[in-house]
Amino acid sequence: MEAISRPSSLSAAAHQISDAVNGHEAELHIINEKIHRNPETCYEEFQAHDVIVDFLEKRGFGVIKNAFGLQTAFLAEYGQGGRIVTFCAEYDALPQIGHGCGHNLIAVSSIAAFLGTVATMKESSSPGRVQLLGCPAEEGGGGKLKLIEAGAFANVDASLMIHPTPPVDHSRPEIAGISYGTCLSACGVNATFLGKPSHAAATPWEGINALDAATLSYTAVGLLRQHIRPSDRINIIMPEGGTAHNVIPERSRIRCNVRSETAAQMNSLKTRVENCFKGAALATGCTMELSVAMAPYTDIRPNEGLCTEFADAMQKWERKFVCNLEDKVLSAFSTDMGNVSYEVPSFHGNFSIPTAPGVGLHTEEFRDAAGTLEAHKVAMGVGKGMAATGFRVLKDEQFASLVKRNFEADKKLR
């Protein structure tokens, strides 16, 4: 990546950011605990929405509640004119497990980044606007897809957020997370097979077995797995397969998730999987209906400038983030922040919180780790790094131009 000079004002900004975040740390911990102890699933995050909005309003920020047509989205903004930097706050939880993905930490790290950036802007006469965007329904609900459609990112120059994970490598505690990385694109498909019922003992020949179609689909996909890329993933469940053991099933349903490194590869693999379903329907004499189970989440297109700046900023607080522009880290999760990265220059880093070895995301153990004071303190630290990165986009014309050039160059690689 091309080198550009760093304005001297950024050093002063780092101190302002740190002081601002430290000053709000205790209040943000209260918000963190409220969200963590009261998990709400996608599009039901009413308490989280209200808790954050109330905090912002009491500190004098104008907030649009129920923003962009979504009841649990919000938008806060500070500044005038100039470029726009948006920090994305997530706060939805998983069914049953609760905050097993640590979205409570995403929320408070983005709030911290917003407050830190505001503090620097109050000391600067430069134009620019910083936004805190409340983003519901990341866990399969496609909240950011709806925000994109509603124009939430239409004029944004950079969008940033960061996600908690278990340690990258327990044997290397000096690595605090990943700055330059991506994830898998993902989509979900429902295949419903319709057959004909009959008595399973008296007249089975008169029936058309919908469960046979689902079983054949499962087997066909299993065979397909031999001929897909190592990073591809196909996961299937059968939510429906009949109503009684002595009746030929007239209806069955498969839910399938398809993941690949890029959106283009995902769409190609999805077609191959759907062909497995069509072949099974044809072989068994069933009819088939396809429907969307999860809107497509694209891979993350990490912006080189933003990722490098964040990693450099975190070095000031003695935290090392992996940022090798020659070797982009591929993680197996999926997020609708990927869709945002196709629209505007974006940063979606990962930061490690303390967990025992073997603990993974979407588990009760990670949920418990995400609720600790130690995890909260780490979230405050990465909030500072995001604020420093966002402020440079607003303050430094050369850097903002670099970020935009990185984004435009990436378009040619998709």
TrEMBL record:
Q: Which SUPFAM superfamilies match?
A: Bacterial exopeptidase dimerisation domain, Zn-dependent exopeptidases
Q: Name one GO molecular function term.
A: dipeptidase activity
Q: Which domain of life is it from?
A: Eukaryota
- Per UniProt, residues of the Peptidase M20 dimerisation domain are 186-280
Q: Which InterPro entries does the entry mention?
A: Amidohydrolase (IPR017439), Bact_exopeptidase_dim_dom (IPR036264), Peptidase_M20 (IPR002933), Peptidase_M20/M20A_hydrolases (IPR052030), Peptidase_M20_dimer (IPR011650), Xaa-Arg_dipeptidase (IPR017144)
Mind telling me which Gene3D superfamilies this protein's record contains? 3.30.70.360, Zn peptidases
Question: Which Pfam families does its entry note?
Answer: M20_dimer (PF07687), Peptidase_M20 (PF01546)
According to its UniProt record, which protein family does this protein belong to?
Answer: Belongs to the peptidase M20A family.
What name has this protein been given in UniProt?
Answer: Peptidase M20 domain-containing protein 2
Tell me what organism the protein belongs to. Penicillium cosmopolitanum
